Amino acid sequence: MQELKVILRDDEIPRQWYNIQADMPTPLSPPLNPATGQPIDPEDLGKVFPMNLVEQEMDQNRWIDIPEEILEKLLLWRPSPLQRAVGLEKALQTPAKIFYKNEGVSPAGSHKPNSAIAQAYYNKEFGIRRLTTETGAGQWGSALSFAAQQFGLELKVYMVRVSFEQKPFRKLMMQTWGANCVPSPTRDTATGRAVLEEYPDTPGSLGIAISEAIEDAVSSENTRYSLGSVLNFVCLHQTIIGLEAQKQMEKIGAYPDVVIGCIGGGSNFAGLAAPYIRDKIQGREIRVIGAEPTACPTLTKGPYAYDFGDLAKTTPLLPMHTLGHDFIPAPMHAGGLRYHGMAPLVSRLCQDKLVEGAALNQLDCYAAGMLWARTEGFIPAPETTHAIAAGIEEAKKAKEEGRERVILIGWSGHGLMDLKGYEAYINGELSNYEYPQEMIDKSLEVLKDYPKPE
Amino acid sequence: MQELKVILRDDEIPRQWYNIQADMPTPLSPPLNPATGQPIDPEDLGKVFPMNLVEQEMDQNRWIDIPEEILEKLLLWRPSPLQRAVGLEKALQTPAKIFYKNEGVSPAGSHKPNSAIAQAYYNKEFGIRRLTTETGAGQWGSALSFAAQQFGLELKVYMVRVSFEQKPFRKLMMQTWGANCVPSPTRDTATGRAVLEEYPDTPGSLGIAISEAIEDAVSSENTRYSLGSVLNFVCLHQTIIGLEAQKQMEKIGAYPDVVIGCIGGGSNFAGLAAPYIRDKIQGREIRVIGAEPTACPTLTKGPYAYDFGDLAKTTPLLPMHTLGHDFIPAPMHAGGLRYHGMAPLVSRLCQDKLVEGAALNQLDCYAAGMLWARTEGFIPAPETTHAIAAGIEEAKKAKEEGRERVILIGWSGHGLMDLKGYEAYINGELSNYEYPQEMIDKSLEVLKDYPKPE
């Protein structure tokens, strides 16, 4: 009988996160205050995030201890399984060995709680009693609802109105975990009221929801804002994924030739990939691929530049691959990958050729997701299908070349809350999105007066 | 750091099912042919199920080898974790230790695939190429869709029309796994056409769907019917749950004082409990509780009698606790527990005082489910909340008595596909159901002319 999984015991869970800032060949350019063009004052960030997280954002230590209180909560579902996709290998008739790290086993069904739990803990530690956040597709909002409840924090989630109406189940998850989930724009913030004044029937947008959540946080007592990707500390919290995967593969004497994660804001990918990129920096031969949608080709088509993290320009200027902060990706189903920018950490690593981007189109991704569900059983999230599709391409190449190749896929979450995308695919209602270069060029014009990162 | 989980390695998965028929103090009375009142001819059952499963239904051996091909598929998600509910213990301030066996980790999200995989395998082995089944709430239909796909079998699922319309996501899961899921009644069977002739707008019923699925199976080439609970072989396949739990608790030197599972048709409960009931038969002091809804109080209010397994009276007469085959349980959310009868195995064990029933009401169960979600993270299925509510009662008793007590809960599945019940609970729209004894007595009148089991 072939063993299909490598499981770590509770006492084998990693006790430290890995901070790749300590090993990057080129240090990160700092976030800039858009008014002055100077590096942002940490005190300014401290109005939005608790200072202990602001400090973690800039921490340069290689290893950062995971507080015991966080480990206890992570153990509700971690260490997550490393599994071998034998059924898929057979279907592809490939000599490749395909492993996947299954983050779908968390209460919220994705990797997001890895950082949600950490952020809730640090806020609580800092004396914060209430969090705000925004959510689009709902993965982050539900993860933070679960985490806030675990630490007894209040939470208000500004959910993009169109998602709020189209995805009632995500809202119900958040309510079950005790969060207050409201359709954005609301009448509760000046931003929301202004938008509703002008566009009473607006479907809302992630940009508006972010602005509302930040306004609420900075203007309410004992309240801070929480963000589910992009930032260094979010990527840091996610490194537990890659650290576990390394331990697990070591147990069976395996090491990947290629590591693949889907990539939107970048934290899921960075979490899986960072420990492997460290090996690569130290000379190991390994490919590290961020799989993104052609509908939002940030790594493959966007330049490395300073840009705002949000449409409303409320964030500092961040050094990153970007399609321009007012780029609106096509309405494809992998909502978690519809982000114009990319985590500065991942962007810098990409500049240094330690990470490569691959753009996958929607139909290939759903075909890959269907094949996965029918061979491996678990139905992947639309975001996760991008990593699977890229993994299948690698497995096919291995077959053509007739050589074994070890492929590690980051299986970021299950698709049980996103079955409408599968329905649309099965019914032939989906299409691919590709942008003419002129359109991207036009969207990038906003960048021309901003400073340039090194 | 406290360890919260006990995980078995792939190579520690049980290799045999435990057949409690070998150890029961009173043997099962046989199923009867309703026309003759005589034990059913296995050849008749062989028209509905493949003969290898019919033989397994009557097998009296204590240990039955699990074929390698089944083990390989079970390893996609098994062994399932045994977890300690420390957060719940704290919230209850109980000295009790609460463990739960998490069956929510399967691709379909419940324990159902344990038997679905086995049934698909045995059908395939027997040369069957196509399966039929019915589904109400959708748990069984989706589990069998996954399993049929794993063995390359065609599958047609007759889904009660009202569920088909109200639960589109369950249908989408089945389609994603390649099954043909249709709203019952259909025009594809004589039964369906007759019903539609008379009641064109019928919402359908489980009884009608069963009749359609069986008619399709016995009248189509190379086709058999598949059932997700009640039968001996289904209970047998589920014993892997309890066998794993015993191995896991042994690893930490623990043994439960009380084992609790929710109980509808009985297979989830039997699967968890059977190995413990064996210990009890051998003299071990342990309580084994089947937690059922007051809306369908089969074990607590139904007599032990011969009755049909379905409303349409297409099955043999089965010796079981029953509320009468035309008892229609109130429309509560735990659809998987809305069954008038009870697995003959469980019924017989209950007669012999090896199993006790406990009836829980809907509001207490949802309150328990909410408390679980907010302490332990995972959102339980409405069915599972019954076991949790009963477990919480035991934990409270332990607190009153001031003594440690080890409680093992069968966590049969997650509730991500059933969030509407939570919404109704949060909005105060749910109520309890209790039946006046006269109503149950009236429903039991159908039994008066049937033979009586010993």
Secondary structure elements and their pairing?
2 copies of one chain form a homodimer.
Chain A: E1 5-6, E2 16-18, H1 42-48, H2 51-58, E3 63-65, H3 68-74, E4 82-84, H4 86-92, E5 97-102, H5 113-125, E6 130-135, H6 139-150, E7 154-160, H7 161-166, H8 168-176, E8 180-184, H9 190-198, H10 206-219, E9 223-225, H11 232-251, E10 258-262, H12 267-281, E11 287-293, H13 298-301, E12 304-308, E13 317-321, H14 344-351, E14 356-360, H15 362-376, H16 382-401, E15 406-411, H17 419-426, H18 437-443
Parallel strand pairs in A: 5-15, 6-7, 6-9, 7-8, 10-11, 10-15, 11-14
Antiparallel strand pairs in A: 1-4, 2-3, 4-5, 12-13
Helix pairs in contact in A: 3-5, 4-15, 5-6, 5-11, 6-8, 9-10, 11-12, 15-16
CATH architecture annotation name of the domain at 71-109 and 231-437 in chain A = 3-Layer(aba) Sandwich
Uncertain parts of chain A: none
Percent range of helical residues of chain A: 40-55%
User: What is the 3D form of chain A?
Assistant: globular
Largest interface (C-beta under 8 Å)? A-B, 46 and 46 residues
CATH class of the domain at 71-109 and 231-437 in chain A: Alpha Beta
- What is the third-level CATH name, the topology of the domain at 71-109 and 231-437 in chain A? Rossmann fold
Please, how many helices of chain A?
18
Strand order of the largest sheet of chain A: 1-4-5-15-10-11-14
Largest sheet of chain A: 7 strands, mixed
First CA to last CA of chain A: what distance? 53 Å
Strand residue content of chain A: 15-25%
- Quaternary structure annotation: homodimer
Average pLDDT figure of chain A = 95
Number of strands of chain A: 15
The whole-angstrom Rg of chain A is: 21 Å
Structural class of chain A: alpha/beta
